[in-house]
User: What shape does this take?
Amino acid sequence: MSKLSEEQLDLIFSALSDRTRRSILKKVQVQECSVKDLVENYDMSFQAVAKHLNVLEKAHLINKRKSGRHYYSSLNEKQLTQALNWISKQYDFWNSSFSSLDEFLNAQDDDTK
Assistant: This one.
């Protein structure tokens, strides 16, 4: 699994910051959806949904394929997994740092008694 660049992380987290895009990801996680299918689920225009899909595609969070005149989107689980791995590493680092700080502060407290 390749390491995500800082630019790619920015694109992913920016894409995930929007409620509609997170909702779209939930839908395409369950099944591949056409733009028309997605438009029917939201109170917005075809163009607005297409813009959300373009943001998700630029972040590589969805896969797009064309069949005839229709485009279909599905979740790119690999990209989401890589982002989750990055978050997990950050969590582990900070959790370890806070544990070390806690041990240090407890030792300092014991020394003052």
In short: The mean pLDDT is 88. The radius of gyration is 20 Å. The first helix runs from residue 6 to 16. Strands lie at 33-34, 62-67, 70-75.
